[in-house]
Amino acid sequence: MAASSERIAMRARRWLRLATAVLCGAFLVALTLVTVVDVIGRYLLSSPLPGAAEYTEILLMAIVFVGLPAVCLDDGHVSVDLLTAGLKGVAERIQLNLARLVVAVVLGLVSWQLWNHGAQLDSYNEVTVYLRAPLGPFAKATAVITGVCAVITLVIAVLRLPKSDGGGV
């Protein structure tokens, strides 16, 4: 039973990783197109893309937060192992899963604060300057994604999955 659930979790990990990579790639292509159109318009036609800076900000936010689940799925968080570099076997697995639990708690707290920030932006009817896009929903979307990342990290810790090699599918 445990081997079966681990196999299912590893397969889900690979496919979720692939989906986030494809989505991030699409956002990067869109960001490139916005930049190219803006530069060509600005320097060749003396007419920059209206709202290009805001499109860039929104796309960068999307890339970072859509990429975050891939980082969680790959155990790719930045870590310093000065004190734990010599751990082997069971001690290394315990340290890995404790670190995952800490990351899950921190991501949960960040998610909660992002949601509160989104609610505050909503209450002020805060919008972007040029596009007039409301900022609250963007903050709340990042909160949801960060919360999903907390759950992903917690599930990986609870199932004690081996560290991912980050190889995608």
TrEMBL record:
Transmembrane segments: 52-73, 94-115, 135-159
Start and end residues of each Tripartite ATP-independent periplasmic transporters DctQ component domain: 31-158
UniProt KW keywords: Cell inner membrane, Cell membrane, Membrane, Transmembrane, Transmembrane helix, Transport
Pfam families registered for this protein in UniProt: DctQ (PF04290)
Topology class, membrane: Multi-pass membrane protein
Any GO BP: C4-dicarboxylate transport
GO cellular component: plasma membrane
UniProt KW Transmembrane helix keyword: yes
Record InterPro entries: DctQ, TRAP_DctQ
PANTHER family reported for this sequence: 2,3-DIKETO-L-GULONATE TRAP TRANSPORTER SMALL PERMEASE PROTEIN YIAM
Entry similarity comment: Belongs to the TRAP transporter small permease family.
Self-association state and partner proteins as the record states: The complex comprises the extracytoplasmic solute receptor protein and the two transmembrane proteins.
The protein's name in its UniProt record: TRAP transporter small permease protein
Organism: Nitratireductor aquibiodomus
